Structures are given as structure tokens and as C-alpha cells.
Amino acid sequence: MMRDQKLWAWHLIAGAVILVLLGVHMLTMHMEGVIRIQSLNPASVEHVDKDRVPQTRDQKSDEEDIHPIDWANVRARGVRTLYMASYIFLLGAALFHGLYGLRNILFELNPAVWLRKTLSALLLLLGLGLFVYGAWAAVMARAIARAWKA
Amino acid sequence: MLDSKSHPNRLGIWGWLGGGRWGVERYLYTLHRLTGLGLLAYFLLHIVVTSGRAFSAAAWTRAMSQVSGPFFKVGEYLVFLAFCFHAINGIRLGLVELGFAVGKPIEPVYPYRTSVDVQRPLALAALAVAFVLAVIGTISMWSD
Fold first, then answer.
1. I need a labelling partner for B126 at 20 to 30 A (CA). Which of B21, B90, B96, B115 fits?
2. Are A75 and A145 spatial neighbours (Cβ–Cβ below 8 Å)?
3. Touching check for A59 and chain B: CB below 8 Å?
């Protein structure tokens, strides 16, 4: 199998990974108004349950809704190792899928060989840099979430 | 990518939008690319913005307050719509790429049938599913 065939196969595989993980992410962030699942936004579900004391709330009054991006939910998700691992996995898959797709679009314009090599190197550096930074952020976020809980 | 020195891409990016009598699948291809580029741009910024949670709860709250308001909500909604289309159309492209939904080779007997006869219903079904997802997300995002 040629190198580009392998990369294209990885592009498809990364797309499938993104489909699952980003699907869960979208369900968490944008569909909570229709589908509310305990494990996705724990603080929101506890807040809605009026019979229980909402112990995971931060900076929110009883009258206010807790949104998926509020720290209470971010912290509740962040303490879980599975979430951290899925963020890192999604980060890698999405960076590869997106940047390889961009590379294909740019290469279709038939740039000179030296420009192809430069573009490939720049996109690789950008992808690796953002992956390291994003993975570090996910690990640190878990540590902060756990420390906050304690 | 293969070299195509003998057939240069003369139309370039404009070739995405015009240059021939294309079917609906060609315009889905164009939309797939545009939504992909939009999602990539958003994603690269998203990595930087959401890294605020790596510093403190206050840093996270501050980062989120900087990207709140109607402008960002509309932008986020457009990203969601782009995701719905790109994801479902991506499944369709994957199926076609792997040889599903293109039909079996047949003798060219009149009235001729082409693989488009098989692919077109799939394209329409993909659009319908993306539309349903978009409606669910629209209700969820704007029902507050």
C-alpha cells in the first residue's frame, strides 16, 4: 500500500472515531435541552432533581439552570479518567482528519514540490503542537477537577 | 496525492462551484469541503479557548464569558449545523468509497442504469437525516 493510501485509510478511520466521540460531545453540549443524560452533564441532572440537594453546584442560585459548559458540569466530567482519555483521543483524531483534509485540498491546487514539502511540514508541526498542548490541558484539567473535589 | 503534471488543476478553487453540468452530489462535495474547513478553523480555536480549564475554575469561567453573547451563540449554532451535515455526508462518502451503495456492474442495456440511480437515494437520505439532527439541535439550543 502506498503512503498516501495509508494516510487516506487513516483519514477514514479518524472520521469514524470523530463521528462517535464528537457525536457524544454534541449530545452533551448542544442537545441537553432535548436529551438529558446523567453521565454527560451530572450537575444539570442533579440540579433538575428538586428532591435532592444539588451538591455539585458552584456560583449558581437555585433559580438558575446549570449549563453544560458551567464549571460544575466541566468539573464533574473532568474528574473521570475516561473523559480525559476520550478528549485526548478525539483531539488526535480530529487534528489528523482536519489537517490531512486541508493538506489534500491544498495539494489539489498543484503547488510546487518545495511548497508541498513546506506545507506538509507546517501542518505536521501545527498538529503536533496543538496535540501536545491540548493533551496537556486535558491532563491538567483532570488534576484541577480532582483537587477541587477534595 | 498523485502528481498530475499533465492535467493541471486549472479551475482551482473556483472549480468547486462551477465548470460543468454537475449533479447534486458535486454540490454536496463542495459543501462538505466548506463545512470541513469551517469546522477545522473552529476546532483549532476551540482547543486554545477550552484549555482555560487547565489553569483554574476562574480561568475557565473567564474564558467562557469571553465567548458568550449572541454573536458567539449564532456562530456556535452554525458550527453545529456544519457538524450535522459534515458527519452524515461523511458517512455517505465513506459508504460510497468502500463500494457500498454504488450498485453492481451490469450490462449496458437500454434503458441504461448508472450508479447514480443507487447513489442519489442515499444522498437524499443523508440530507434528510442531517436535517432531522439539525432540527433537534435547533430546538435544544434555542429553547432556553
1. B21
2. yes
3. yes
B2 to chain A: which residues are within 8 Å by CB? 4
Whole-Å CA distances, A147 to A139, A142, B122: 13, 9, 50
Average confidence (pLDDT) over B26-30:
89
Q: Give rounded-to-5 percent helix, strand, coil for chain A.
A: 70, 0, 30
Distance CA B31, CA B93 (A): 13
Q: Answer for the pair A145, A79: CB distance below 8 angstroms, yes or no.
A: yes
CB environment A31-48: b (16+ within 10 A), e (fewer): bbbeeeeeebbbbbbbbe
Residue B3 burial by Cβ neighbours in a 10 Å radius (0-12, 13-18, 19+): exposed
State the ipTM, two decimals: 0.84
Distance of CA A54 to CAs A63, A66, A70, B91, Å?
Answer: 12, 11, 14, 40
Task: Please check whether residue A72 is in contact with residue A56, taking contact to mean a CB–CB distance below 8 angstroms.
Answer: yes
What mean pLDDT value characterizes chain A? Answer: 82
Cell of A75: 468539573
Q: Residue A89 has which C-alpha cell?
A: 483521543
Which grid cell is B91? 458517512
Q: Which of A32, A69, A91 sits opposite B64 (nearest CB)?
A: A69
Choose the weakest-confidence range: A113-127, A129-143, B102-116: B102-116
CB contact A102 to B (< 8 Å): yes
The verdict on A101 touching B (C-beta cutoff 8 Å) is yes
B73-85 burial, b at 16+ Cβ within 10 Å, e below that, comes to eeebbebbbbbbb
